[in-house]
User: Which sequence fits this backbone?
């Protein structure tokens, strides 16, 4: 469908300043189809800020992000259709059941909700579909949010700490899914403190250093 | 790219989600309503058994109580969504933000203002409102409370990221409610004196449509600033 090496997402000259502290400066990034990027770095080096900037949730101090050559601010609808962002908080409503949460997440992106039950099976939440999310654990909340990964047309995945509170088995499943997605030509950008158990040739790591000078 | 993306479906999805949450979390509906009842009751008790005084202040008291009870319920419009991360998901939805915001405001209005509008005649009776004023009170509330929700949503969107935005929210929003308050009470007063009040209603309706068109965009922009 599309050429495998085309640049889908590019970031030029990004810099981010938080509380008068430079988190990163003059960052140039190019994400190609099939790429998996791990953003690494100590706490407070701007991993989340970078992901939020890439998703368009946070304005960079300098620089811009282009999706297929267009600034993301100018092609919001197209970019958001192609983007799946999962932030620190899973965005799960405690007052809704597992199934309702998932259905809503899918509807919001205009996705079909017929296969919800199968999706819940993928994330080991089968049998919980009518349980209120308030009665579930943090890991299970994250699983509700992650279930969308198994049914999405979005090519660009930006995942902020997707493995937090997920058990070993789940992490393995998730890494498998990430690899599968990249093999199909998707882009995955994620942050994690754990080492990825993917083949090292398959992913790139960007390590953010702490910048002291101002 | 995605043929099943429909703005109407997204609107309905948010509306039904917010209504479900409100119905499962019933104090969201009951608390502002009880507040509305208690404030008006306190006025009636405080003023004492002076039917004429009550009759004069009735429109103002009912409207101020409606305004304060709306303010009380406004904060939860975006607060929970902000805290659990679903606000980010709304902002990143392929649907334009103003549609999603409009759905949330509509749900909020249905949950908080509709019961209030239905209950108002009963409280008007307690305040000894002139019988000619009932219809005007109903109409002004019906047209005026959506303005309160729409304008209030802008303030909530601006203060959602603040830890204690409650007081700031009142300071931001209450002055904006003044025109609605003046027009609505004037309309009810006019009705009790048997003079035409359609002019007042027309201006309230104009305010309603103006805020309906502009507020969702302002809320969307404010939310983007708040989550930045």
Assistant:
């Amino acid at each position: 469908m599309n050429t495998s090496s085309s640049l889908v997402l590019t970031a030029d000259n990004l810099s981010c300043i938080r509380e008068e502290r430079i988190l990163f400066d003059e960052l140039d990034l190019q994400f190609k189809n099939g790429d998996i990027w791990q953003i690494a770095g100590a706490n407070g080096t701007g991993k989340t800020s970078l992901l939020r900037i890439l998703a368009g949730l946070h304005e960079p101090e300098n620089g811009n992000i282009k999706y297929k050559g267009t600034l993301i601010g100018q092609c919001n609808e197209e970019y958001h259709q192609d983007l799946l962002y999962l932030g620190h908080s899973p965005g799960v409503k405690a007052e809704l059941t597992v199934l309702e949460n998932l259905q809503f997440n899918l509807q919001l992106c205009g996705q079909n909700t017929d296969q919800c039950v199968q999706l819940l099976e993928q994330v080991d939440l089968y049998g919980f579909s009518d349980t209120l999310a308030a009665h579930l654990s943090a890991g299970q909340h994250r699983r509700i949010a992650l279930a969308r990964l198994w049914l999405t047309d979005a090519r660009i995945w930006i995942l902020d700490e997707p493995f937090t509170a997920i058990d070993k088995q789940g992490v393995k499943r998730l890494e498998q899914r990430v690899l599968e997605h990249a093999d199909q030509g998707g882009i995955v950008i994620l942050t994690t403190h754990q080492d990825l158990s993917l083949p090292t040739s398959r992913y790139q790591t960007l390590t953010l250093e702490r910048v002291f000078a101002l | 790219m995605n043929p099943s993306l429909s703005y109407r479906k997204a609107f309905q999805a948010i509306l039904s989600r917010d209504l479900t949450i409100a119905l499962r979390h019933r104090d969201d509906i009951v608390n502002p309503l009880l507040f509305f009842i208690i404030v008006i009751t306190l006025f009636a008790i405080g003023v004492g058994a002076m039917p004429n005084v009550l009759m004069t202040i009735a429109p103002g008291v009912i409207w101020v109580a409606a305004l304060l009870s709306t303010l009380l319920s406004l904060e939860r419009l975006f607060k929970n969504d902000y805290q659990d991360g679903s606000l980010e998901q709304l902002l990143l939805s392929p649907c334009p933000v103003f549609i999603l915001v409009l759905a949330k405001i509509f749900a909020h209005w249905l949950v908080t203002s509709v019961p209030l509008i239905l209950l108002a005649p009963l409280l008007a009776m307690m305040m000894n409102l002139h019988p000619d004023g009932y219809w005007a009170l109903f109409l002004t509330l019906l047209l005026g409370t959506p303005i309160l929700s729409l304008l209030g949503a802008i303030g909530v969107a601006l203060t959602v990221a603040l830890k204690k935005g409650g007081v700031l929210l009142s300071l931001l929003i209450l002055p904006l409610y003044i025109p609605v308050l003046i027009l609505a009470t004037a309309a009810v007063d006019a009705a009790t004196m048997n003079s035409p009040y359609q002019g007042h209603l027309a201006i309230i309706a104009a305010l309603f449509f103006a805020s309906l068109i502009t507020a969702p965009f302002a809320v969307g922009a404010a939310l983007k600033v708040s989550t930045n």
